[in-house]
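cache lookup: miss for this entity combination. No prior model stored, computing from scratch. Input as submitted by user K.M.:
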Amino acid sequence: MDEFHTLQEFLLHSESVVYIIMGLSLPLFLWFWSFLTGRDRDFRK
Amino acid sequence: MSEPDVKQEKNWFTPFNLISGIIVIAGIVVTIIRFTKGLASVSNLSDYNPWGIWIGFDLMVGVALAAGGYVTSSAVYLFGMKKYHSAVRPAILTGFLGYFFVVIALHYDLGRPWRLPYPFIVGWGTTSLLFEVGLCVALYLTVLFLEFSPAALEWLGYKRTRNLAHRLTIILTVFGVVLSTLHQSSLGALFLAAPSKLHPLWYSPYLPTYFFVSSVIAGLSMVIFEGALSHKAFHHKMGKAYLEEHDSLAFGFARAASLVLAGYFTIKMVGLAAGNNWHLLTTGYGLWYLFEIIGFVLLPCFLYAVGVRDKNLPIIKWTSALAVSGIVLNRLNVSIIAFNWHLPKAERYFPSFMEIIITVFMVTLIVICFRFIVTRMPIFYEHPDYQQDNH
């Protein structure tokens, strides 16, 4: 477990991880949307 | 489409009637004991554990699974997805019965039923989250009753009253969404008052958001799940429109549920990161948390997506059961399993046999009422006199 001595250290660490997760989630959502709708055109034909 | 033929059931000794009859008799006996001899005579509730399965399952799960009403009606009336119109009445009925029996079950926990309106007529506890929950449930139950009333009035033949109730549809839908958003989230907010009692993996400042977002998943999955069960049990009561729309409804709702599950997973990870609780994942509770997240969030998200991509209806139906189980597990985790997690085993809560009987009694009453209503009222079909109104 990480050791934090100040609230600033804790927030810097935890919020950095939050930003990384949110940054990663955006392209992952785009990929997931294309996966979800990938075969729609085939079924419409 | 006229009303499908009704086969009168003459044999009363069917397996359904026998099993439900036994449960109802047992439920009535425990009810009498509860209201004559008090809470302690039937439950394992204590000062450490004042909320048991009557709150954790009957209320928390009941409210979440009743979300199909506001999800479906807002999809159809607010977002204009008219192709799902035939699913509105079954969803509203499920929501109405769910909420009605939530209030009934609440009486077992609270006692003194005549005091239920006190928060609204005697003391306005406006600083309490429980007051908001109570007010929202009372108002939303009224809204659901009014939303459901056209079906009952069509059955009774009260044309003018039915037309009046029908004209209120949009405003009731708006009220329904507002009230559901408020109280689904405030049920989660209740646990913000107990940060030291709830395990850090489940406790988060985002609990209200988690409860609201997961209620959308519950609503979408419950409509698919209930539709699949109804399809088997009440196929003969279903109109042409309902049968035609059934598959596209399941695919549409599964797609939405898959997306919301993906979003829910993301905000759960954000909550985990914000609390920096990663190290807890290797503990016993951590493994249980991972079981919930992987088995009942990620897996249904993936399976729904596969079902939608491959246009595979059986996968979607089974996944809806998995997603509904996930909501049940999540609510039980928050309110019972991960609650008071630091207490020694001897002080931990486990429901008594009679508490479980009451819970099964409530579920059975919902099924009996649902069956009674759909076999008589125009729920799965359109009443021939009002077909134009519904489009």
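stored under new cache key. The interface with chain A takes residues 255, 258-259, 262, 266, 269-270, 273-276, 279, 305, 308-311 of chain B (CB under 8 Å).
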